[in-house]
């Protein structure tokens, strides 16, 4: 009779196990179950030869607890199995070992290291096949014939045996992997030829975990790459590379293998798409974009690979057949109609939750007799809100499936499309993408892209052939978007326009006290992109020359949505603490009266690494503060950037240059006031709403 040992790392599904045990017993096998599971969920009437949950008995000693607390779960499971008499008796009698889940693979592997007799398999199906083969070939021979998993792991075992005994005791723990010998040996082991993907994946994950704990983060990445090259299953390969990349992202950094992980998921999406598995293809595409456009990579740090080289960053998406299918232009059956001449223009203004930049547009066109305006906040409509959040279904539809998704969008949006002559969608995110799911008829679709959206996945899941016009807030944002978003180039691309954000700047014009000349101001410090630490460098150098200079920080504290943002915020708080205590920095905080707060500011700073159009800087200039603008690093050296959005003399490249500009323009009350007056005039004649609204009129009425 054959003894089959099942090892469970978690509670197995009852119906699946019951059917399998019945088949094993029909083939004449005794079945033993050991591992970590809920004993109450295991049916005792299945005819088990052994059922043993470990650890068994009462609470462990403090020494035992300390020892196991430092282990990962697979190691801890084997630790308890090795010390349990009942479990070891089942191990010794086993002719066939079946690991039921990934958590149990390590224990099965350890059994294969010191016992040549049992054949080792992963999964019930593999176990049944092995048992049937064993019965066919008459495996009751005295000399054991190794099964496929045993043979495949011989290379691993040979490499493991070359490790020093002290390292072997710790297997893949940090003690072993802190050693260069141990790290190299395990790296060679997990990249050995002939190892099954499931085992290679499990072993590699354990090695990566140990390397990470041992402080060998770069070694973990090298190990993942080496193992990934040997993996056959593209899904396992993508998951392995994702595990390393996601760990680095969680730690607040951009992973060195980001492109490899994204490409692996896109390759998987291409395979699934070609095979007609649209659900799996959509899932892989979403994993790729989650990594590629993670906020840590672009938003919560002072550098972005997309901004550094848009063409190189987006290249994997341009090469992917699935990604190309997502944005394949479907066009519209009817061209957008010209604005009506015999009645008011029906204008639908749509967004979701964020109407911050729509107040002047709404109030102006609501009062305009030539316009009939309706406002749609899609977050307030449960049906639309659900569709906006259904990214998986959305991508499946883009790939050629999920017809019910398009039907749902049609039901929600068609009444608005039938009513409107023009739809103006603010923010190029989920609502904008949703409006391109269905044919808009002869309704004109206009989408405004600010800045943030260019670093997200949403423009990469839109059919821009159904968008007539895209409005950008600055030339440098248009340049970046056209270079990185496939739908914005080519014969089906929409028209593009650059129109400044509408702002009511006249209210900011104030008379300033002479002492204000020495007060620097920074409006909006809630994001890493504002880089207030750069402002502190300027302040420090100014105070070394004249201690009358102070910095006013206007706006709420920095948000901390990720470890990258938290790390920056901690560094900022540490730097601010002594400056606030000495009075060199004044934290104004969040306020509804920004014009009033700017009365105390004589020099307005823009220290950001990226901006669309820095509203706080424009408001400060309108107030009569002297503008000092850092040449935003994301766009510095490009055809367009801060130096083309603002007068060239406002722009500085370094903190030292900023200091010299501040000192020269605040040298006297007269020079300061004259510079402030010029700034006010430029702001009011360039960005004030009476000027900008003419551009919106031309956009909406001139065709």
Shape: globular
Largest sheet: 6 strands, parallel
Helix content: 40-55%
Termini separation comes to 86 Å
Give the integer mean of the pLDDT values.
90
Low-confidence stretches: 140-171
Give the C-alpha Rg: 32 Å
- Assign the structural class, choosing from mainly alpha, mainly beta, alpha/beta, alpha+beta, or little secondary structure: alpha/beta
What is the percentage of strand-forming residues? 5-15%
Strands in their spatial order, largest beta sheet: 7-6-8-9-10-11
Number of helices: 33
Number of strands: 17
Characterization of this structure:
- With 703 residues, the chain is α/β, with parallel strands linked by helices.
- Helix content is 51%, strand content 12%.
- A 6-stranded parallel β-sheet has the order 7-6-8-9-10-11, sandwiched between helices. The chain has a 6-stranded parallel β-sheet with strand order 14-13-12-15-16-17, with helices on both faces.
- Helix 5 links the parallel strand 4 and strand 5.
- The chain is globular and about 100 Å long.
- The N and C termini lie far apart (86 Å).
């Amino acid at each position: 009779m054959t003894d089959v040992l099942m090892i469970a790392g978690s509670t197995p599904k009852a119906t699946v196990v019951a059917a399998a045990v019945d088949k094993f017993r029909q083939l004449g096998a005794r079945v033993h179950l050991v591992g970590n599971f809920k004993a109450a969920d295991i049916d005792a009437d299945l005819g088990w030869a052994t059922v043993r949950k470990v650890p068994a008995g009462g609470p462990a000693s403090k020494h035992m607890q300390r020892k196991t607390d430092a282990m990962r779960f697979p190691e801890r499971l084997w630790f308890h199995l090795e010390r349990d008499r009942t479990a070891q008796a089942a191990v010794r009698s086993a002719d066939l070992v079946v690991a039921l889940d990934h958590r149990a693979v390590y224990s099965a592997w350890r059994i294969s290291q010191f016992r040549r007799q049992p054949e080792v398999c992963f999964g019930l199906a593999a176990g049944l096949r092995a048992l049937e083969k064993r019965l066919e070939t008459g495996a009751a021979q005295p000399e054991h014939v190794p099964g496929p998993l045993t043979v495949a792991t011989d290379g691993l075992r040979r490499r493991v045996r070359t490790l020093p005994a002290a390292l072997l005791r710790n297997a893949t723990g940090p003690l072993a992997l802190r050693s260069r010998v141990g790290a190299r040996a395990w790296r060679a082991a997990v990249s050995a030829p002939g190892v099954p993907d499931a085992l290679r994946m499990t072993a590699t994950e354990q090695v990566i975990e140990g390397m990470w704990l041992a402080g060998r983060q770069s070694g973990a990445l090298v190990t993942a790459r080496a193992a990934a090259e040997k993996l056959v299953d593209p899904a396992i390969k993508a998951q392995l590379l994702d595990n390393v990349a996601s760990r680095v992202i969680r730690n607040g950094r951009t992973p060195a293998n980001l492109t490899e992980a994204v490409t692996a998921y896109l390759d998987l999406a291409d395979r699934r798409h070609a095979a007609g598995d649209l659900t799996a293809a959509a899932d892989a595409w979403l994993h790729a974009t989650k990594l590629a456009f993670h906020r840590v990579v672009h938003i919560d740090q002072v550098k972005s690979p997309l901004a550094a080289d848009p063409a190189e960053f987006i290249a994997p998406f341009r090469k992917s057949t699935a990604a190309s299918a997502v944005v394949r232009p479907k066009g519209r059956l009817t061209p957008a109609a010209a604005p009506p001449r015999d009645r008011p223009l029906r204008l639908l203004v749509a967004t979701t939750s964020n109407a911050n930049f729509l107040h002047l547009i709404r109030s102006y066109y609501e009062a305009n007799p030539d316009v009939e305006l309706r406002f749609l906040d899609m977050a307030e409509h449960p049906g639309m809100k659900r569709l906006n959040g259904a990214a998986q279904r959305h991508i499946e539809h883009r790939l050629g499936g999920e017809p019910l998704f398009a039907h749902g969008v049609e039901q929600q949006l068609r009444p608005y499309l039938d009513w409107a002559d023009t739809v103006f969608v603010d923010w190029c995110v989920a609502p904008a993408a949703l409006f391109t799911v269905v044919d808009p008829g002869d309704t004109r679709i206009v989408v405004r892209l600010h800045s943030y959206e260019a670093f997200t996945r949403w423009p990469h899941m839109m059919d821009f052939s159904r968008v007539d016009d895209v409005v950008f807030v600055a030339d440098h944002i248009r340049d970046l978007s056209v270079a990185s978003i496939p739908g914005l180039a080519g014969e089906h691309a929409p028209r593009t326009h650059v129109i400044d954000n509408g702002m009511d700047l006249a209210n900011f014009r104030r008379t300033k006290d002479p002492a204000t000349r020495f007060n620097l101001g920074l409006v909006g410090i809630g994001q890493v992109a504002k880089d207030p630490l750069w402002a502190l460098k300027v302040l420090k150098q100014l105070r070394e020359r004249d201690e009358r200079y102070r910095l006013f920080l206007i706006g709420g504290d920095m948000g901390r949505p990720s470890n990258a943002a938290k790390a920056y915020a901690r560094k900022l708080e540490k730097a601010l603490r002594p400056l606030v205590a000495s009075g060199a920095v004044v934290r104004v905080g969040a306020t509804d009266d920004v014009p009033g707060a700017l009365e105390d500011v004589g020099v307005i700073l823009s220290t950001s690494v990226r901006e669309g159009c820095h509203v706080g800087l424009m408001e400060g200039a309108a107030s009569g503060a002297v503008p000092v603008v850092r040449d935003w690093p994301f766009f510095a050296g490009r055809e367009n950037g801060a130096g083309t959005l603002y007068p060239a003399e406002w722009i500085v490249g370094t903190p030292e240059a900023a200091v010299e500009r501040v000192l020269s323009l605040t040298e006297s009350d007269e020079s300061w006031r004259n510079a402030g007056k010029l700034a006010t005039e430029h702001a009011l004649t360039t960005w004030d709403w009476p000027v900008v609204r003419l551009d919106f009129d031309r956009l909406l009425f001139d065709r």
